[in-house]
Amino acid sequence: MSPPDARIRLYQAEDEKTVRFAIGKSNLEGLATANKKSSLHFVTLIIWIALSVAMVEYMQWWPKLEQGFIGYLGPLPAFGAMAVPFIALFDWINRPQFEDLAQEALRGPDIPDMLQYYSRSPASGLWILEFDGHSVGICALDASLDSETKTLSPASGRFRAPSKGTSKTAVIRHFFIDEPYRKVDIQKDLLHHGIQHAFNADAKLQRIKMTCSSLTSYVQKCLKDEGFTFERHTSSLGVYGWKTSEWALERERFEKKDL
């Protein structure tokens, strides 16, 4: 039996729903990570333990040695009851930020007609990573003249293609790999493919940048491995203010690394 095939191909019109789903998922995935990290943060754990102990004291649920092993289970309901409000509170605080990020991405100038949008510059591209016939990742690199535009004009609500051309700075608008496939670092192949295509396609392109948060550690690691360097912090996310950062790769650095 032959092993499953993996390939990287260009976006096609019938991929629209798959790509939209991946874009939304990539942004909302950070919500689950933020909620988990918030719940396990040392400050949260200290407050949770203190409140749980206070509840045990108030309810007099301390272990009763005369009951044997069962007696040691007495305090557990207090710890469980105190955990629930924290979980709900963190989700209530974190969710609006991540939903806004997902909506902003899905209102991007590339979304209405992705096929046309990414054909305006030879250095642009939207690629699908397939494994065993299933789409498991996407990489969207925008090298067009308006590559740094984040949203559609409210007045038009539609994408209007300007004259074709390549900017000096390209932006990776979307990058996502399904979680089960990250362990084998397949994301490195996808990112390298997109970057290599962009720099080889047009000599005008001198720089590629991407913004990502520390909550998507696999993306940050992938960027570092490919030669991207930290530029600046752009914003904070979640209860504990996880940083969103901008990373950039210069053509000269890429060419030296790719030799």
From TrEMBL:
PROSITE patterns: GNAT. Coiled coil: none annotated. The chain crosses the membrane at residues 42-63, 69-90. GO terms for molecular function: N-acetyltransferase activity. Residues 85-252 form the N-acetyltransferase domain. Keywords: Membrane, Transferase, Transmembrane, Transmembrane helix. The keyword NAD does not apply. This is N-acetyltransferase domain-containing protein. It comes from Moniliophthora roreri (strain MCA 2997).
